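Shipment paperwork, digital attachment
Item: protein structure file
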Amino acid sequence: MTRALTSEFRKFFTTRLWWGMTIAMVLAGAALAGLFGALVQPDGGFGAGGGPGAPQMHLDATEIANNVYSSGISFGYLLTLAIGVLVIGAEYRHKTITGTFLATPRRLRAMGAKILSLLGIGGFYGVLFVAASALVGGLVLSARGFEAFPSAEVFRTLALVLLVLGLWALIGLGAGILIPNQVAALLITIGVAWIVEPIAGLLLSTQDWGADVAQYLPSQATGAVLQTMTSPDGQQLSWWAGVVTLAVYAAVLSGVGSWLTIRRDIS
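Attachment content:
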C-alpha cells in the first residue's frame, strides 16, 4: 500500500495541475475572505443593507470570523471536486489505468491508494485555502476593528474546512469513475454542484415536504458543517450531521466507483 500511495502522490505532484490548482485555491480563499471582511458593517451587520426592507444579519464576533474565513468554500470544494474527477479521469483518457493495475495487480489496493491520496491532497489544498483566507481575512478584520480569532470555535471551523475539502475530492473521484469521459465528467459534476443542486435546494425549500430533503443536499450539508448557511426557512443540520451526510455521499460514490473499477475490463 505504501508504494501504491507514493505512486499516486507522484502522479499528481509531478504534473502542472498541482501548482495551477494551488494558485486557484489560494486566490479563492484570499480574495473572497478579503472581500467579505470588507463588507462586514461596524455593528456586525452582514447583508444587503441597501434599503429599509433589505435583509440583514447581525452576527457576533465568532460568526463574523467563521463566515469571512469560509466565504470561498464553494469555490474551494469545486476545485477539489475537479481534482477528484481528474485523478481518475486522466487515467482513462491517457490510457495509464492499464499501467496502474499492472504495477499494482490488486485493484482494491490501487483504488484504496487513490482514495487515501485524495484525502491527503484535499487536506493539502485545505491547508492552503485556510492559510490564505485566515491571513487575508484576519488582516482585513483587524484593520476594521474586529477580532480576527475571537474564540476557539473559529479554529474548529478552519479544521472542518480541511475535512470538507477532502470529502468533496472523494465525491469527485466517484463521479469520475461513474462517468469515464473526463470532459463530460468535469462538466456534469461542476454543473450539478454549482448550478443544478443549489437551485434544486432552493426550490425544495419552498415546499413543506422539500425543506427536510433540501438540508441533506451536498451544498447545504457543507454549509451546515461550517454553520455558515441556512435554508430559507431556517432549517439546518447540526455540524456533525452535515459531516456524516457528506461522508455518506463520498463513501457511496467512491465505494461504488471503486467496485465498478475492480470489476471492469481494462484494455
